[in-house]
Automatic annotation (TrEMBL):
It comes from Karstenula rhodostoma CBS 690.94. It catalyses: Hydrolysis of terminal, non-reducing alpha-D-galactose residues in alpha-D-galactosides, including galactose oligosaccharides, galactomannans and galactolipids. SUPFAM superfamilies: (Trans)glycosidases (SSF51445). Belongs to the glycosyl hydrolase. Substrate binds at W206, D373, D374, R460, K493, W494, D495, N496, N497, C535, D557. PANTHER family: ALPHA-GALACTOSIDASE C-RELATED (PTHR43053:SF3), GLYCOSIDASE FAMILY 31 (PTHR43053). It comes from the Eukaryota. Residues 1-19 form the signal peptide. GO terms for molecular function: alpha-galactosidase activity. Residues 49-290 form the Glycosyl hydrolase family 36 N-terminal domain. This is Alpha-galactosidase. The lineage of its organism: Eukaryota, Fungi, Dikarya, Ascomycota, Pezizomycotina. The keyword Hydrolase applies.
């Protein structure tokens, strides 16, 4: 203990303050300060343990901890609020780190050794992460060491003061002579005091993703996870902790998001002393990650945002942070072309003639980007249905006798309505998957994820390529590059239509995701002008990891406008609307036969960064065909505000038949409101729509009643909408600052 006290004494002699006091290290008391958040922890001078002190609204001082009677079985570490807890040394709660050592034991005692504060934020090797320059972010690195096992760790805390956001990750280095294995790895771990908290998360399944769920944090574990190899539709790697009284606009909210595309685990554990441990990281069923002597393990990053302005305030911080410091694609801050996707219009019934004809119909409506979806490839196994050809990325010579180049040139020769702009072309791929009936599988059955002699299960008639293998990574990079080099392709929709099943080792999922990041990093760097859109049977992989590389993601295969309101607003809890892909599809809708007006469908879809059509224009009614040009024009007008503006959820579809949303432009000069009536009722009357984000003293003209009122009037009194006596009505209202 004397040696450790000497280490602490040396640290006490140096006080570091950088980044406009974003991080201060007063000896071994550490304070991270944002515009409206403080995060405090310290080193216990007796033990070397890192102790949590505060995460929330701004504070100035360290205060003595809560007293817990140290009687019974649980004394010592069990009654401390710990920053990086292990297991096996008197703390029975779940650990953030669990390591298997060469001699078979799993006890690890990582204690404080030193720290440093750096301007900016170091990259995480091979992983997506937030980024920023010296004026945006500062980073505290705390070095820990276990003298018994010769294992060291570095905890990284990066604070973005403007967004009240803290990004955390850690690395573990094996300094010994035998292999160790990472059995549990929580990128973000902290212990809250004895306070009442609720958890908000999103759950669902294919076609009804991102349904908001709220539940009380009670004694024991409140947890959810994905074991599908990816985030999946069932849960998303996001949750929020809120005070029971927190609303959309007021109260405390702590949001947590893992920058990771693979299996994950999120837990809030309330112990007998009332403390609540938060853990967010890899799913321990998919770890056992070997680290050889001299090598290091790097955890994914987890981001937490604190808000004293309710859940909506938390969401807006995530949106701004991710648009400016996570999504690196050059299209992130650009308006997106209006597109038409061929799938709903033609399905697999395609050839060059029918596709060019569909693109010609899209041209008449003002579509700017024509997307050729599934079905265009396969020679030995032509892709005539979803059991054939996946993995054989050669254009079907029966459909495209001269390859993609001449066909794409035909589409490019079309001219966008009322302009001289050529129509752009996009293509669908699913390069991580393979069909049993494919040339690729016949040649390389060993490339598929499998577990020895166990049966290889099929989902959607396909199997998963093991992207953890370097040869598979190179195959995908070369294949997609060949496609993009063969024609003037400006957009790629990258799909993924199943999860992982058989794994030969628990860490295969982890290795797969690292391989996937290598592939995508390579391709997006090689083709920076291509607009990349992620898809996983809809929103199965809508996550911050892929958002780092791709600026947008298909939100759900369900394009019913009423269902989409719930899905899109659930997605907006953490991800910006600018990153969502949303389309108008035909009515009645193919999922539920619901018949919703073209105006309502358009207003729902244009709330997203990527707006488009998912239909055959030849099947439009006379009214729909006549209305779509004005919807397209309105969508183009709205898109700049969706891309860069502030987003507000004014009323939720789960709570009201009159949901509403609002965007405020970046400069505050204009705002657009989307209001909906999902179900007509004689009584009660629809409530006024109370706006947000306006200057209370400024005056704004609105085109609903052509009135001019102060921002305070709009926000505190609201505006009343006269609805028709019918279900599924919508209004788009513009406000202009005078």
């Amino acid at each position: 203990m004397g040696a450790f006290r000497a280490v602490v004494l040396a640290a006490l002699l140096a006080t570091v303050s950088v980044g406009q006091d974003a991080i201060s290290a007063d000896g071994t008391n550490f304070t991270l300060t944002g515009d409206n958040v403080s995060y405090l922890f310290h080193v216990d001078t007796e033990s070397g343990e890192l102790i949590s002190d505060h995460f929330g609204a701004p504070v100035d001082d360290f205060t003595p901890p809560a007293f817990v009677l140290p009687w019974g079985w649980h004394d010592n570490l069990a009654n401390l609020r710990r920053e990086f807890p292990d297991v096996g040394r008197s703390d029975p709660r779940l650990p953030a780190i669990h390591i298997g050592h060469p001699d078979g034991d799993t006890v690890t005692a990582l204690l404080y050794k030193s720290h440093q504060v750096v301007q900016g934020k170091p990259e995480l090797p091979g992983l997506p992460a937030t980024y920023g320059n010296d004026s945006d972010v500062s980073t505290l690195q705390v070095h820990l060491y276990d003298n018994v096992s010769d294992v060291s760790a570095v905890l990284s805390y990066s604070i973005f003061p403007k967004y009240n956001a803290i990004a955390r990750s850690f690395s573990v280095t094996n300094n010994g002579t035998g292999d160790i294995s990472i059995e549990r790895a929580a990128s973000f771990s902290t212990d809250f005091p004895n306070v009442d908290l609720d958890m908000i998360e999103v759950q669902g399944d294919w076609s009804h993703e991102f349904n908001r769920v709220k539940r009380k944090i009670d004694y024991g574990e409140t947890t959810f996870r994905s074991t599908e190899g990816f985030g999946s539709h069932l849960h998303n790697p996001f949750f929020a902790l809120v005070s029971p009284s927190t609303t959309e606009t007021s109260g405390e909210a702590w949001g947590f998001n893992l920058v990771w595309t693979g299996s994950f685990e999120a837990t809030a554990e309330k112990f007998s002393n009332g403390f609540v441990r938060v853990l967010f990281g890899l799913n321990s069923l998919h770890t056992s990650i070997k680290v050889k002597p001299g090598e290091s393990f790097q955890s994914p990053e987890a981001v937490s945002v604190y808000s004293a302005e309710g859940v909506n305030g938390m969401s807006r911080s995530f949106h701004d942070l991710y648009r400016n410091h996570l999504s690196r694609g050059k299209q992130t801050h650009k308006t997106r072309p209006i597109l038409l996707n061929s799938w709903e219009g033609l399905g697999f019934d395609i050839n060059q003639t029918s596709l060019v004809r569909l693109a010609g119909e899209a041209e008449k409506l003002g579509v700017e980007l024509f997307v050729n979806d599934d079905g265009w490839f396969g020679v030995e196994y032509p892709r005539q249905n979803d059991s054939l050809g996946l993995g054989d990325w050669t254009p079907n010579p029966q459909y495209f006798p001269d390859g993609l180049g001449p066909y794409v040139a035909q589409v490019n020769n079309l001219t966008v309505l009322d302009s001289s702009q050529p129509m752009q072309f996009g293509i669908w791929v699913e390069p991580e998957m393979v069909d049993l009936n494919s040339t690729l599988y016949n040649e390389h059955p060993e490339w598929v994820l499998h577990a020895g002699k166990h049966a290889r299960t099929l989902t959607r008639n396909q199997m998963v390529l093991n992207v953890g293998l370097p040869e598979v990574q190179d195959f995908i990079i070369n294949t997609v590059s060949d496609i993009l080099d063969s024609a003037n392709i400006q957009y790629v929709k990258w799909d993924n239509n199943r999860g992982m099943h058989e794994l030969s080792h628990p860490s295969d999922s982890y290795k797969y995701i690292l391989g996937l990041y290598r592939v995508i990093d390579n391709l997006t760097t090689r083709y920076p002008d291509v607009l990349w859109e992620g898809c996983a049977s809809g929103g199965g992989r809508f996550d911050a990891g892929l958002l780092h590389y791709w600026p947008q993601h298909w939100t759900s295969d369900n394009t019913d406008a009423s269902d989409r309101l719930t899905i899109q607003l659930g997605t907006s809890l953490v991800y910006p609307p600018s990153a969502m892909g949303c389309h108008i599809s035909k009515a009645p809708n193919g999922f539920n036969q619901r018949n919703i007006s073209i105006e309502f469908r358009g207003h729902v879809a244009m709330q997203c960064g990527s707006f488009g059509l998912e239909l055959n224009p030849e099947e439009l009614s006379e009214h729909e065909a006549a209305t779509i040009p004005s919807i397209m024009a309105e969508a183009k007008k709205v898109n700049p505000i969706v891309i860069s503006g502030e987003f507000y959820r004014l009323a939720l579809p789960d709570n009201s038949p009159w949901p509403a949303t609002q965007f405020v432009s970046e400069d505050g000069s204009e705002s657009v409101v989307f209001a909906f009536q999902q179900k007509y009722t004689v009584k009660p009357a629809a409530p006024a729509v109370k706006l947000q984000g306006l200057d209370p003293k400024a005056r704004y003209f609105n085109d609903l009643d052509n009135g001019t009122y102060t921002g305070a009037t709009y926000m505190n009194g609201g505006i009343n909408i006269k609805w028709d006596r019918a279900d599924y009505q919508s209004k788009l209202i513009w406000l202009k600052k005078q």
